[in-house]
Each structure stands twice: as structure tokens, then as C-alpha cells.
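New to this. Explain the following:
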Amino acid sequence: MLIRMKRDASARETNDVDARIRERGADARRVDDALVVIHGKLRADDVARMPGVESVEELSTPYRLVARAVRPRGTVVTIGDVEVGAGALVVAAGPCSVESRGQILETAHAVAAAGATLLRGGAFKPRTSPYAFQGLGEEGLELLAEAGIEAGLPVVTEVMSPEDVPLVARWADVMQVGARNVQNFALLKALGATRRPVLLKRGMSTTVEELLLAAEYVVAHGNSQVILCERGIRTFETSTRNTLDLGAVAALAGLTHLPVIVDPSHGTGRRDLVGKMAKASVAVGADGLIVEVHPDPASARSDGAQSLDLPQFAALMGELHAHASLAGRTLGPRGGMRGAGGVEDLRKRIDGVDARIVQLLHERAALALDVGRLKRAAGVPVRVPAREAEVIARARQLAHGALPPDAVERVFEAIVSGTRTAEERDVA
């Protein structure tokens, strides 16, 4: 049952309603301006007559506190100066496992420069094989925290047991519950007793309702800062590591007020599909992404096949700006400048933009060379001055940002000239 109090209801009236509910053998939790009955049966007409009550609604779902009806406007999970569920697309990025100080520091600086808002990395790794790399443990936590501080990013890492919660909470900004632990109820209760945000991954055979009931465990035990994560489920399909259930992401938006992010890395297990599914996730309404990134995926000690390298991640972030805009979102910038480190942080982001520009220039030149080869094979002129003028004119028309049209025009004149030179070399 959901009991909404009137806007002008006094604290005394709310307390009286709560007390009368308990006198009838029920138990309720306060959420904003409402009381959510989690145990016991009450007569709706009886409750509706209590002073200060605006409305009474029966909740038909087995989960109560995380139901969308309880907080229709949605929950915003705050992680430092990052807000998940506030409208901006949040991106967590980093390696599957923290392997060394150099590896995690290099990755942290690179993903921060590319525009990531959170740093992910595993210190305790639940692996299917007992002989696979299990993570660096507490040393990995310390290295991850150091990298997060240096790069200016809050960190998210997995916790595997209730006993490890105090240790992981000492170093991590977000506590992740992995797919294998989504129904580890002792762990969920322990995380409910903390005030650290929780990233709750869907299990490989977990239904949407079971995922929401797992979240209910955390919230019912006192921690409302929960982020849900779709990371793929196990089906009969073998072309991908898992089947990424984007239908569940869309469905969750109507079922719960908690923010939902997507893991396209585990969801596919394939580097070549990560970017495509990341964009699809944005289209169905995901509040964020969590992506595996490694400086050298071929040498990664875990999940290298699904990890992007640093240039690939930078390119993906560049592409996501447009997709986020189409979905009515911005690509989550971090909050305001962090003291003296703010300028350096912005410079790193500029470096990331520059890296994306260079990569896009190479891609554009390669496409132009392909066009030239096709034209030569067909026996038609390669250079078409009218087409070059059209490209420059269109770029000028698109100049609506900080750079004036004349400046954009000069940039594209240089691009066209450079492409022409590349075509001449291609012929030679």
C-alpha cells in the first residue's frame, strides 16, 4: 500500500498516521511525502480517513520501495559530483581487473580525458575457473583508489562477501554487486546497512522481477542509493557471450524509480559489438554505461576480448555525444572544477577531444581514398571541385558553436587540401 500525505500535512499528522498503521500490526517506510506499507494488511478506506492523508493506492508488485509509483519522478544517485539518473548519460570505464599500478593509472587518465565520469576496475574477481586470475585484492583496491584520485574520477569496484564490505567501502565510491551475487542476500543486507551507492548487476539467469527484489533488499535495509545494471542474460544463443536484454532496460523505466545503466562489454563479450550496443542502450533510455577498457586488451589478464583499447574508447565517446543528444540527454560532464585540479582536468578532456579529431580525420581520409579508387576503376575524374566546395559550404552552415563559420571554413579547406594530397600519393 502507498499512502500519500497532503502537501500541507504536518509532521505530527504524518507521525500519527505511521503510529496508527503500526498499531494495526503493519509496518511502513517513509519515502519523500509518502508512507509505503511493506508488511501487514490495512483497509484502504480506513487509512484514507486519517488526518493528513491525500490518497491511498494498492501496490500490486512484490517489491514495494523500488516501485516506480513510490517516486514517479525517479531517484538520482549521487556519487561525489556525479549524478546518475539526473538526465545526463554517465559512463564508467576501466579494466576488468586492476593488474598493476602503471596499467590502472594509464587507463584512468585516458578514460578521464575521453570524458568518462567514473572509473571501474576489479580488485576481487569471481572467476568460473579456480585457476583464473582472481584479482589483486586489497592491493588492487588501493591502486584503483589512487588512480581515481589522480584522474579526478570516483571509482566503482565489486564486493563479493558481507565480510568484505567494510574493506571495499574504505576505498570505493560505489560498491558493485556482480551477476553471480545478485541473490547473495547476506551481502545485499550488509550493503543496505552502508550509505555507499550500490551498483547492482542483473544475474545471468535473473528475471527483471528478481532483480528488482534484490534491489528491494538493499533499500529495505536502509540504503536507497541503488543503480541497476543490465549486463546480459544466458540464452541458447552462442554468437555472443550473453544476450543483452535491452527490452528489460526499457521495461525497467516503467517499473522502478531507480536509475538503470547497461554493460555492453559483458552483454556481448565482443569488442566489435560494444560500441553498437552502447549506442542502442542510449536509444532505449539507459541512464549510463559501464565499459571495459584496457591499454592492451591482447595482454589483459581477464576479459580482453570484450575490452576496448584507449583510442577505441575515445572514439566511442565522441560518437556517443550525438546519440545522447538524439535521446534528449547530454553526455554526462563531471561537476564543477575541483579546486586547482579543475584546469588540469579540463585540459585532459581537451586532449581526449584532440585524439578523437585525429582519429576521425584518418577515417575520413580513408573513405575519400576508397572513393577515389572506385572512380579510377570506373574511368571517371577523381577530383570534383564542385563537390569540394559543397563539403566546405555544408561545414560552414553547421557552425553553430564557439567557433565562427569563417574559422570552421578554414579548417575544412585544410582538410580538403590534405585529402587531395593523400589521393595524389595514393596514385603515385
Q: What stands out?
A: The longest strand covers residues 34-39. The chain has three domains: 2-58, 77-335, 351-427.
